[in-house]
């Protein structure tokens, strides 16, 4: 049973009318890991998560969450998962602490609500009605409600949207602690740094399909393109350098003495550039390989046009 | 057996968030939910206006001032049963419809749908909360009526059956409205229905003020059946008012069946 992933989605399809919101999506979330689901608006992130939570039925494909069918076996599944919706979910007139204590009371072995309130910096608003909380406070309360029941698996839909940096870091610390304690986490986000900071696995989805997956490092390393920069004396003979390099490599002097080499950056290319510099009596200062960021990968895969 | 216990203990040891999932006992969940729902209702000023202030005010004003001709006898003997019917209407129908409509709108029902609380348990808790509120209303309104010189007759059991069946009928209709319309539409419609039934349902205006054909139709309304039944028992000392109970039973069955068929949780 432990060998089976916490979430296993295969060939998931969900249509609204004639439009397919999710179109053959695959997703596997290993036990005890943090999986970040990235994607532009309308990519199908929330629909996928809500199908896993049992809110919607899949039109096709298979969905197993903790080995259970979220729709037909929802009653057995719900006590084992924690859910943070993108917004809302609390009586407007309920006090923050009252609502968290209530959610705790629905579970057999809850975390002490006072501890979560302190951890998420909600002490000052325990006796404040939900509708009077700031957006960030509402988000943190929703996060506390998702984890208070000591679930095996939590779904966090954009947990840090609208949070200030302090609250984001408090949220990240909590997610790291969940992972350290063996909780599986699925979170959707628009923030690349969030995925880089937290995720064991990143899944990029677009147009209702998963188009890339891997650790943040794997995704950034993937792809042939790379950039090498160095500085040296101005006016180096770049034609001579290019003769030493593979055919599809480009080189340019961006400003006097500042050089950029673009191509398949591997140890061989680095060695070739270094040895060419040695032959020409050039000291390549600031020699650096530029890694792609997750954001570069994301934009490369999903395009740069604005989404609805 | 020992091995299993040890494994379970290991799982619940460890860190703060080491998984130890499981639902609370169903009874405890329902109690917690009913307490929360009741608190939400009592904390809401608009709801209190509807369920407490308006019925109490109508009882006092219409008893003290001869605005409507309530027939032979003291006006409070006519009014008190009607106001009790209005109290049930305000809580089980209007209040519950508005509150549930906004809970649906704000995602409260959606979020609870992902909690260990089963839907039937949520509805049970809502019903408990409605009954607790009605109990408070009945105590308050009865005390006011006694202070105004009310002298009720009849079988308390018949009164209880009428109030419970009325609650079932109004709850079904209220939840049907809350589960199918937008929250704002529910707010407007529930208040409008409250006002129309207050006037046309035999609550403070005697049925015989309306012409024959209209009267026959109005008598089929759930609030008319409830106020008429309560009046038969409390004012005239009748036994079980089977006709009115029958009307309420039909409304209850139709309303609850339609609500369970058409209610949308999001």
From TrEMBL, chain A:
Gene3D superfamilies: P-loop containing nucleotide triphosphate hydrolases (3.40.50.300)
Compartment annotation: Cell membrane
Main location: membrane
Keyword terms, alphabetized: Antibiotic resistance, ATP-binding, Nucleotide-binding, Transport
Residues annotated as domain ABC transporter: 7-232
Pfam families to which the protein is assigned, alphabetical: ABC_tran
Protein's membrane topology: Peripheral membrane protein
InterPro entries in the cross-refs: AAA+_ATPase, ABC_transporter-like_ATP-bd, ABC_transporter-like_CS, ABC_transporter_ATP-binding, P-loop_NTPase
Keyword presence, Nucleotide-binding: yes
GO MF term list: ATP binding
Keyword Oxidoreductase: no
Protein name: ABC transporter ATP-binding protein
Organism of derivation: Actinacidiphila epipremni
TrEMBL record, chain B:
Record-annotated ABC transmembrane type-2 domain positions: 42-266
Signal peptide (residue range): none
A Pfam family that the UniProt record links to this protein: ABC2_membrane_3
Entry membrane topology: Multi-pass membrane protein
UniProt cross-references to PROSITE patterns, sorted A to Z: ABC_TM2 (PS51012)
Keyword Phosphoprotein attached: no
InterPro entries: ABC2_TM (IPR013525), ABC2_TM_bact-type (IPR047817), ABC_2_transport (IPR000412), Nod_factor_ABC_transporter (IPR051784)
Location in or out of the cell: Membrane
Region feature Disordered, mapped onto this chain: 1-25
Chief place where the protein resides: membrane
TM region positions: 48-67, 79-99, 120-151, 157-178, 185-205, 245-263
Alphabetized UniProt keyword annotations: Antibiotic resistance, Membrane, Transmembrane, Transmembrane helix
PANTHER family the UniProt entry points to: NODULATION PROTEIN J
Protein name: ABC transporter permease
Organism: Actinacidiphila epipremni
């Amino acid at each position: 049973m432990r060998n089976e992933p916490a979430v296993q989605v295969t060939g998931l399809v969900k249509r609204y009318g004639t439009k397919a919101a999710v179109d053959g999506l695959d997703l596997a979330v290993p036990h005890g890991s943090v999986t970040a689901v990235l994607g532009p608006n309308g990519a199908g992130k929330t629909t996928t998560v809500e199908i896993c939570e049992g809110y919607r039925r899949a039109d096709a494909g298979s969905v197993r969450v903790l080995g259970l069918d979220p729709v037909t076996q929802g009653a057995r599944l719900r006590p084992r998962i924690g859910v943070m919706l993108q917004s809302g979910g609390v009586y407007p007139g309920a006090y923050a602490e009252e609502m968290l204590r209530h959610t705790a009371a629905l579970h057999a072995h809850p975390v002490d609500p006072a501890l979560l309130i302190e951890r998420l910096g909600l002490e000052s608003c325990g006796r404040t009605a939900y509708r009077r909380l700031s957006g960030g406070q509402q988000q943190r309360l929703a996060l506390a409600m998702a984890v208070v029941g000591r679930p095996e698996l939590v779904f966090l839909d954009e947990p840090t949207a609208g949070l200030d940096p302090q609250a984001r870091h408090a949220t990240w610390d909590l997610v790291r602690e969940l992972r350290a304690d063996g909780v599986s986490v699925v979170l959707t986000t628009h923030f690349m740094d969030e995925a880089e900071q937290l995720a064991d696995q990143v899944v990029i989805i677009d147009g209702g399909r998963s188009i890339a997956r891997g650790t943040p490092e794997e995704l950034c390393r993937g792809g042939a393109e790379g950039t090498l920069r160095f500085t040296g004396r101005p006016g180096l003979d770049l034609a001579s350098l290019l003769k030493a390099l593979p055919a599809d490599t480009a080189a340019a002097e961006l400003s006097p003495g500042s050089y950029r080499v673009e191509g398949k950056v591997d140890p061989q290319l680095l060695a070739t550039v270094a040895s060419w510099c040695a032959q020409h009596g050039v000291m390549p200062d600031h020699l650096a390989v530029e890694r792609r960021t997750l954001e570069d990968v994301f934009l490369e895969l999903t395009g740069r046009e604005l989404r609805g | 057996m020992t091995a299993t216990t040890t494994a379970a203990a290991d799982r619940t040891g460890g860190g703060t968030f080491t998984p130890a999932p499981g639902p609370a006992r169903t009874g405890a969940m329902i109690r917690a939910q009913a307490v929360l729902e009741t608190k939400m209702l009592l904390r809401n000023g608009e709801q209190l206006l509807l369920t407490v202030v308006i019925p109490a005010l109508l009882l006092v004003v219409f008893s003290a001032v001869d605005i409507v001709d309530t027939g032979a006898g003291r006006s409070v003997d006519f009014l008190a049963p009607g106001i009790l019917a209005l109290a049930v209407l305000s809580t089980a129908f209007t209040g519950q419809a508005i509150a549930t409509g906004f809970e649906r709108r704000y995602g409260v029902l959606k979020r609870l749908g992902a909690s260990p609380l089963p839907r039937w348990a949520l509805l049970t808790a809502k019903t408990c909360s409605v009954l607790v509120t009605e109990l408070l209303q009945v105590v308050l309104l009865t005390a006011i009526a006694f202070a105004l010189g009310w002298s009720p007759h009849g079988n308390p059991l018949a009164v209880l059956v009428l109030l419970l069946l009325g609650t079932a009928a109004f709850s079904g209709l209220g939840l049907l409205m809350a589960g199918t319309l937008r929250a704002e539409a529910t707010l407007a419609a529930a208040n409008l229905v409250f006002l129309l039934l207050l006037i046309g349902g035999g609550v403070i205006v005697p049925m015989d003020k309306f012409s024959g054909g209209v009267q026959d139709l109005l008598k089929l309304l759930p609030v008319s059946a409830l106020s008429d039944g309560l009046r038969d028992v409390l004012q005239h000392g009748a036994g079980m008012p089977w006709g009115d109970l029958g009307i309420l039973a039909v409304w209850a069955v139709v309303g609850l069946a339609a609500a369970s068929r058409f209610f949308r949780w999001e």
